[in-house]
Amino acid sequence: MGSIEKLIKNELAIAVNGDIQFSESSNMFFTQGFTSYSGNTYFKGFRFSDKIMITIEIGIGYKYEFLNGITVFAKNGDKNNVLGSRSFHCYVYAQSKAKAEAKEIIIEHLKKKSLNAGMNCDEYVIEKFSNGLIEETNKNQKDVLSNIQFNKLLNS
User: Fold this and answer.
1) Residue 115 has what pLDDT?
2) Residue 73 contacts by C-beta under 8 Å, 6 or more apart in sequence?
3) Domain for residue 155, yes or no?
């Protein structure tokens, strides 16, 4: 297992089968895909920041790429807490759609948590904060992963 693969699998703290590769064009890490009997290929993509992680489940059919699911995790030390997830059927993939869905998951989570805590949070503030979290996952993912690992070394 390569060093990048090892770092990602440690960072994910979830089981990932197969190789993990980086796509320069999409600035995302991907698992090795598998092809179904019907000829569709499925794989997961990952984006990181020091605060959140987004996993994206993608399927490639004969004509389109589909967003099959998305999960957003909050980083909590060596653990990743699920903020929320969504599953889709026949939802044509676009990076902008995946970002919008991830942002909505974060917004819903923050609204629920603030309501449960008895806080009255301005929706604009929640949306602005959520945008910031999503934008952090658009930074160069190789650099982000290295920075996360160096921060862990500093704090150990």
Assistant:
1) 87
2) 52, 53, 54, 55, 80, 81, 82, 83
3) no
Assign 127 to helix, strand or coil. helix
Look up the pTM and report it. 0.85
pLDDT tens-digit map of 110-133: 999 988 888 888 889 999 999 999
Q: Which of 45, 36, 1 is nearest to 19 (CA)?
A: 1
Instruction: Give the amino acid at 81.
Output: N
In a domain, 130, yes or no: yes
SS3 content of the chain, % helix, strand, coil (to 5): 40, 30, 30
156 inside domain: no
Number of domains in the chain: 1
Q: Which residue range forms the structural domain that includes residue 111?
A: 3-150
Residue 39 is encoded by which pair of tokens?
């000829």
d(CA 20, CA 27): 13
Q: Which residues contact 156 (CB under 8 A, 6 or more apart)?
A: none
Element (H, E) at 102: helix 95-116
114 Cβ contact list (under 8 Å, min separation 6)? 120, 121, 126
Give dist(CA 125, CA 54) in Å, integer.
21
